[in-house]
Amino acid sequence: MRQLRSRSAIPPMPPEPPDGTIARPGRDTRACSAWRGRIEAVAARDKPNFVWKVTLLRKNVANAYCLPGGKIVVYAGILPITRNDAGLATVLGHEVAHATAEHVAERIERGI
């Protein structure tokens, strides 16, 4: 019978990243990333120079926002509220509308 290695020989699990960091690859990050191509296919008609990217942050906050140029940030805390792809699409569509209307750029110009 083979002997099992001692527990000390098993490398420790890496620590969980702190709140607010980019989420590790997994089901939720794949769902957010999958929408990037769909967004780009439609929104590129209005904003062909934008480089669309969706990033999921590990934070239990029900929110999302956009940055200039097509960057969208989604907090993991909103995912239980969205429940499914249709809910996530609604949130992302809302952020795409802000991005294409360049609301963030307007706010930066006004100093808000």
In short:
The chain is of the alpha+beta class and 112 residues long. It has one domain: 2-Layer Sandwich (Zincin-like), CATH 3.30.2010. The protein is 40% helix and 12% strand.
Low-pLDDT runs of 5+ residues are 3-8
Number of domains: 1
Give a count of the beta strands, DSSP E runs of length 2 or more. Answer: 3
- How is the main sheet built? 3 strands, mixed
Order of helices and strands: HEEEHHH
Overall geometric form: globular
Output mean pLDDT: 83
Share of residues in helices = 40-55%
Regarding CATH, which class?
Answer: Alpha Beta
Give the percentage of residues in beta strands: 5-15%
Say what the CATH topology is.
Answer: Zincin-like
- Ends: how far apart? 70 Å
Question: Please, could you describe this protein's structure?
Answer:
The chain is an alpha+beta fold and 112 residues long. The protein has one domain: Metalloproteases ("zincins"), catalytic domain (Zincin-like, 2-Layer Sandwich). It has four helices and three strands; from the N terminus they run H-E-E-E-H-H-H. It has helices at 27-43, 79-82, 85-100, 103-110; strands at residues 53-57, 64-67, 71-75. It has a three-stranded mixed β-sheet, with helices on one face. The radius of gyration is 19 Å and the shape is globular. Mean pLDDT is 83; it is low at 3-8.
